[in-house]
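Hi C.,

You asked whether I'd gotten around to modeling the 171-residue construct. I have! Everything is below, sequence then structure, no commentary in between.
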Amino acid sequence: LYNDFIPVGSNHITNDLSVMLHTPPNAAEMLKIKYGNLLTISKDDDLAIRKVKIPIIGDEQNTKEMDLDSVQTIIHARVEETLILMKEKIKESGISDSMGAGLVITGGMSQLKGMKELASKIFDNMPIKVANPINIKNGYVNFDDPTMATIVGLLLYGLDTKANFELDSNK
């Protein structure tokens, strides 16, 4: 029914972490993957008080301690912004009232813990599903990964010689 593009993705989370924490991009990516969590953490939880050591840009041999709460706040802010942009785009499209079945989220950012819960709050308790794309069986590449969703969609579209839909590039 609707297709659009939002120029924000999980690489923006990595960039935010790198810039705000003054750490190299590879360290920021590791922080995102290892500690990315969108769920509220109780003050009694070990993660709430734990610190991690991260390298410093320009002085990678030395590290500094960073509170995980700061890391998760940066991640949460970017994901929340992305989901709000998605909600606005869907509302502008005019299809939001006919989305009773809900929303399917895929891609690299969908792997963050708590994505389903945060998306449900932002989309006013609409049913949310976090999914992997269909794995196209072949002898070379495993497509059963959320980061492969666009590639799988384009491959399936390109391989379908009897598609019963058309793309309108003007919308």
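If it helps when you're writing up: The chain is about 40% helix and 10% strand.

Thanks,
B.
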